[in-house]
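Hey, can you fold this one?
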Amino acid sequence: MTKIKLCGLSRPCDIRAANEIHPEYIGFVLAPDSRRYVPPARAAELKRLLKPGIRAVGVFAGEEPETVAALLNDGVIDIAQLHGPEDEDYIKKLRMLTGKPVIRAFRVKTAYDIADAKKSTADYVLLDSGAGTGAVFDWRLIQDIRRPYFLAGGLSPDNAGDAVRTLNPYAVDVSSGIETDGRKDRTKMAAFAAAVRKEGRL
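Sure. Predicted structure:
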C-alpha cells in the first residue's frame, strides 16, 4: 500500500493531527528560505510529541552535510530529504557521517530528469514539479520508473486517489494541498490520508 508523508508541519496541533491520522512519515522544513521553516530546536520539540512509528523527515536545501548528519544522529529527524544543489558527492559524504536514510528530490520537467533520478544513490527519490509550487507535473514521464519513489507536486485530497491508482508510488507527499490560508488543516490532512488508503483497499 502507498505510504503517506504529510510535510511542512510546524505546530503542536499539526503533530496532534498527524498522531491521530498516523501517516508513515511527516516532514519538518529545515531550509531557512522556506515560509514553512522551523528551527532545529523547534523541530526537536515537535518530534518529542510525535507518536512512535511515524518517521520524521527533515527537508534541507544546501545545508552543510555535517549539520544534516548531526540532526539525524541526535534523533531530531529520522531521514534527510535533500531539495537543493546536493549531488552524488554530497550524498557520499553524508553517508560517511551517518547511517540514516536519504531522500533526494528531483524536479521533473523532461525525461532527462527521470534519468538522473534513476541513477541516484539515495535510498529514495522524490519526484516533484518544483519546490512548493503546488502544481502537478506530467505523470506520464514517470510511468516506467521502477525504483521506490515519493510522488509530490500538486497533490490534494481531490487527486491523491488518482495518483495512487495511476502510478502506485511508494509514497505520496503533500504540503500545500492540506493547508487553508497557509496553515495545516486537520480536515484536509485526514481527507488526504483517507483518499490514499481507500485506493489501497480497492
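The first strand starts at residue 3 and ends at 7. Let me know if you want another pass with a different chain boundary.
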